Amino acid sequence: MKLELTPTERRVLRAEAHGKNPVVMIGQNGLTDAVIREIAVNLDAHELIKIRVFSDEREVRVQLFEDICNQLDAAQVQHIGKLLVIYRPHPENPKISLTKQNLVRASAPGKTASPKLKSNSKR
């Protein structure tokens, strides 16, 4: 069963993933058992990972995203270009906190926009 996220949780995780590099690459052989194991190992270690898919077909990437999340009980955070961002909390010792306090702080007005973006929005 795939984990579902609220829009606020997804926004917090996207921000957290922004500076991360892909840890798993999916090539021409697609989603093999070895790739699934590697994704699972990295999810256990990091909870939030990026995956690079070397396929030019968007439909293939969307299907891979869904298959990975369904097989590993993970949540789809973001699909942008050839990068997939996936989250699965560690069952015993979660590292990323999606508590109500963190989510409220992340959704507070004015916390996410930089001053430059704020000044442009007043035009």
From TrEMBL:
PROSITE patterns given in the database record: CRM (PS51295)
UniProt keyword terms in alphabetical order: RNA-binding
SUPFAM superfamilies assigned: YhbY-like
Residue segments, region Disordered: 100-123
Record domain CRM: where: 3-99
InterPro entries: RNA-binding_CRM, RNA-binding_domain, RNA-binding_YhbY, YhbY-like_sf
Protein's name in the database: Ribosome assembly RNA-binding protein YhbY
Origin species: Leeia speluncae
Organism lineage: Bacteria, Pseudomonadati, Pseudomonadota, Betaproteobacteria, Neisseriales
Gene that this sequence comes from: yhbY
